[in-house]
Amino acid sequence: MDDKFPATPPLTSAASMTICHLIDDKNPPTGESAAMNYPPSSNFDQLLKLTAPLVAGAEALTRHARRQLARADRKPTPGAALRPGPDTPLWNELARAASLQLRKRGEKAKLARVLGVSRQRLHMLLVSRVACPDAERALLLVLWLNARKAGLDPA
User: Fold this and answer.
1) Domain boundaries, the chain
2) Which of 26, 54, 108, 121 is deepest in the core (most CB within 10 A)?
3) pTM of the predicted model, to two decimals?
4) pLDDT tens-digit readout, 43-54
């Protein structure tokens, strides 16, 4: 071979600079398999550590979106009870307004007596919101709220 054309190019200051700033790659590619001959640097590992939570979050959002779509596609069974959620905005507002009135100790127990339900059932209705009351209890709750706003103690 001629001295004019060496087999590998000499390292100059430009060639010794970082070629890929993400993985701190200082080795210029000399062939297709040459890039795979050295282990990835710690910067690449750091990049993987940074992106792992993003990937996990994206997967969680995808699972959540699939569940929401599956719920939206389901048609309610005729005669089935309503469940609290986005489909029951009036009940959500009524439960929120009632919860705001229950600040003092013992007020939930008094309201449970007025409505004729157990304290546990009242918790399911107003706090955890996993159940809706029947029409009679909902009307009693509206009357209780009106009395509280008027300054009366309906218990």
Assistant:
1) 9-74, 89-149
2) 108
3) 0.51
4) 777 777 788 888
Of the listed ranges 54-58, 72-76, 89-93, the least confidently predicted one is 72-76
Give the integer Cα–Cα distance in Å for 91 and 72. Answer: 19
12-44 confidence digits (pLDDT tens): 544 444 455 555 555 555 555 544 555 556 677
d(C-alpha 142, C-alpha 93), whole Å: 11
**Sequence-distant contacts of 9-16: CB under 8 A, at least 24 apart:** none
- Kindly state the helix (H) or strand (E) to which residue 116 belongs, with its residue range: none
CA distance 98 to 15: 72
CA 85 to chain centre: 16
Other beta carbons less than 10 A from residue 23's beta carbon: 16
Cβ neighbors of 17 (< 8 A, separation 6 or more) are 26
SS3 27: coil
Which residues make Cβ contacts (< 8 Å) with residue 97, sequence separation at least 6? 145
pLDDT recorded at residue 136: 92
- Residue 20, classed as helix, strand or coil, is strand
Tokens 């609290």 correspond to what residue? 84
Six-digit token pair at 151?
């300054």
